[in-house]
């Protein structure tokens, strides 16, 4: 119901031109999982797997086929028979068998009695469905990671824009102060001009940040499958970083490894299907049909036109026993085994890579946490230096360079804090992904 409500509000807002939609991270993730093409294709793969299972199962079910044929024989084949059959001993007589026209209509039923390849295929088909389900889960996790990254990047850009606007207001005050001192003869014109240059640079920088915000928002909308024309607004948040609990890494929770394990299972089924070529197979067949013969087209004629109809039926069991195929099956089995061993090597390599990613993510998270604490203190120190520089400049104890440098240092410190917070949130996403718990982002528990 929550997903339906979110989609309804977004579509309604888009169609009626209402206020921008306030989009939280869980709402963005839910929207992406419902609308992104990758998620939809993963869901279609699961449906496709059901169809594949039904296709394989059909090989174990009865098959019923019908056929019909009408043929004209302008020249009938003649066979040589001894004359004794016709009371003419010592002669060979050519006799033509059949009639000019023949029509047949047949229904054939076949049923597999034993075929090891069919039974193996049924088991492999179920594993194929599980493979697609795991692939869909992995696709969702990748979408969540990308959406979270894009979402936090929008926040970063918005915060940097806020920093620029804050610094812009401060510089405007500085320009007014320098202007007043210049008009009273207590400051030089070059100081006033330099302060205005700094102000104009900030105005240009603000415009660049406004454009950057729009680009980041468009990237987020594309990432979740939302129309680019839809206006969005992110709710205000005050990110308070806190180290995630140090939990032991359970590699079995990683969807990547589960997917590779399922792939190895499918390769083993493929090998068993190849080995099934060594087994004999048996099937039941039954036929029933009608045969019409005459000198006229049998389809619409009867005995009054010299056409005779008769029915026919047969029931049989077909057994196929493989004896020797030039070692082709043996070669295919060897190829299957090599594919299995390659997949096992990929599994080990992926497991090692995931362990590395987890260690790096935890280290990045801890470093970002320490950096944030340092930058918070640095912002406060830069603010105090700026206030002292303002007071000293007004008293003539500091130069304009000192004041402008203090303003730049304060802006740099705030941007560094913003970047450190983004690095922390991105590292947080990586840690959750490494622990196989990234879907927690859908529940707004962070």
UniProtKB/TrEMBL annotation:
InterPro entries from the UniProt entry: OMP_efflux, TolC-like
Compartment(s): Cell outer membrane
Main subcellular localisation: membrane
Entry keywords, A to Z: Cell outer membrane, Membrane, Transmembrane, Transmembrane beta strand, Transport
GO CC terms, sorted: cell outer membrane; efflux pump complex
Presence of keyword Calcium: no
GO molecular function: efflux transmembrane transporter activity; porin activity
Family (UniProt): Belongs to the outer membrane factor (OMF) (TC 1.B.17) family.
Protein name (database record): Outer membrane protein TolC
Organism in which the protein naturally occurs: Gillisia mitskevichiae
